[in-house]
Structures are given as C-alpha cells and as structure tokens.
Amino acid sequence: MTDTPFSLDGELALITGGGTGLGLGMAQCFVQAGARVVLVGRREDPLKQACDELGDTTSFLVHDVTDVHAADKLAATIAARFDHVSILVNNAGVHLKKKAVETSIDEFETVMATHVTGAFALSRAILPSMIERKTGNILFVASMASLMGVPQVYAYTTAKTATLGMVRALAAEASPHGVRVNAIAPGWIATDMARKAFAGDPTRHEKVLGRTPLGRLGEPEEIGTAAVFLCSPAASFVTGAVLPVDGGASIGF
C-alpha cells in the first residue's frame, strides 16, 4: 500500500455532467486529491464557470453524451490535448418526474440514452487505453433508485437499475486487465435535480427526510469524497461494488 492511499496525484479524470451538481462536487474533491480534471457537458457556460472556480488543473470540453458516435473522437481529443484518461466518471444524467403510464416512449428513450447508452459509449471509447496501460478506474453514478422502486420516476429508476448491470459486467471483463469498475448510489443530495424533484411536493420531501436516518439531504462534496476513495489506491481491491452514499436511506424505515 502506498504512503498516500487517498491521493490521486498523476491521474487524469474525465467527469461527464461535470459543470454542476454531483459532477462539480466530485471535481472539487478530485482536484483536492491531486488529480487533473476534464469536465464535459452540453453547456459551455457552467463548464467554464466551474473551471474558473476549480483552478488551472481543470479544463473542459463541450460534449453531449447522447451523441454516441462522437465518443471515440472525444477520447482521442483528450488523449492528444491532455493525456490518456485514467479515471472516467459516468455522471451525466437527466431527471424525469412522471409515472410510468404518463411517460412517453420518446421521454423514456431520452433518459435511457443519457444514463445507459451514453455511459456505455464513453466507457467503450476510454477502456482500450486503460487495458493497454493495465490501469484505470471507471466509476458510474447509480442511485438509490438502482436499489429500490421509486414512484413517479419510472424511466430514471429503470436507467439507474441498468447502470448496475453495466458495472457488474464491465468489472468482470475489465478487472483482469487492471481496470477497476465501481458505482456510487447517491441518496437524496442537495442539487438542482433534487430541488426539481421536490418542487411543489412537500409531502415527498418530508417522506424523504423521514426515511433517512441521518435526517438531512447529502451534499455534493460527500459524493465527491466517496468517489475519491473508490478511484484511489485505498480501494485497490474494490471492483464491481456499489457504494450507497445516502444517509442510511436504503436501510432506513
């Protein structure tokens, strides 16, 4: 074990959806741990603002993960401009608060395209260089909705459940080559996405807090520190794992 087991010195992390919310919280923690970070997302302004806040070890590229045929080009651009990605965080996501019978096929496919197909395409593009170098980490952002049925978010719950299948299958394939694959399953975190989910629904908010033993929402940085652990030498024997970071909500009553 290294003398600095939680250090990410020398790592290059690519974080999708990195300009706001959980992505920004993880980026902050990765930078503090010594990594260089490339943020990608669809909107330039939040990405630029995030890099301005995080400092000169961060950069950004505008990229839509649902443009799956551009994933190889993104990987090549990052390798040429910065270095080979050693940590990939599949964080980009969209939220849809609708019951199953109210969710259109197009809406369902949009959610799946972002969380599942987009994450697959980028993992597929980045993985070969990790396998060649016999080192790397791929981290998926799952959800409490991966572990339990959550009403009114049918498409999101389906997508996040599929995420765990990708983690298990990819870990089984990639780990023999020195590439670890894990997931974080956040609970309810104080982000814009959570605020939209609670908008106009105080009963839902009260229910969330009532079944969370720690009695509060989490903070993006609390997801970030967990991400640093899973991608650091401290977790060198951890692969195929799903770490709930949810204030105990998945085991609460």
Explain what this protein looks like in three dimensions.
By secondary structure, this protein is α/β, with parallel strands linked by helices. The chain has one domain (12-190, 220-244): 3-Layer(aba) Sandwich (Rossmann fold). It is 44% helix and 15% strand. It has helices at 21-32, 44-54, 71-81, 105-133, 154-174, 192-198, 202-210, 220-231, and strands at 12-16, 36-41, 58-62, 87-90, 136-141, 179-186, 242-245. The chain has a 7-stranded parallel β-sheet, sandwiched between helices. Helix 1 crosses helix 8.
Task: Give structural attributes.
15% strand; Rossmann fold; seven-stranded parallel β-sheet; 8 helices; 253 residues; alpha/beta; 44% helix
Short note summarizing the structure:
With 253 residues, this protein is α/β, with parallel strands linked by helices. It has helices at residues 21-32, 44-54, 71-81, 105-133, 154-174, 192-198, 202-210, 220-231; strands at 12-16, 36-41, 58-62, 87-90, 136-141, 179-186, 242-245.
- Tell me the name of the CATH class: Alpha Beta
Spatial shape? globular
Strand order of the largest sheet: 3-2-1-4-5-6-7
- Helix share, percent: 40-55%
Spell out the CATH superfamily.
Answer: NAD(P)-binding Rossmann-like Domain
User: How much beta, percentage-wise?
Assistant: 15-25%
CATH topology: Rossmann fold
Average predicted confidence as pLDDT: 95
The residue ranges in which pLDDT falls below 50 over 5 or more consecutive positions are none
Q: What is the oligomeric state here?
A: single chain
Question: What is the string of helix and strand elements?
Answer: EHEHEHEHEHEHHHE
Q: What would you report as the Rg, rounded to the nearest angstrom?
A: 17 Å
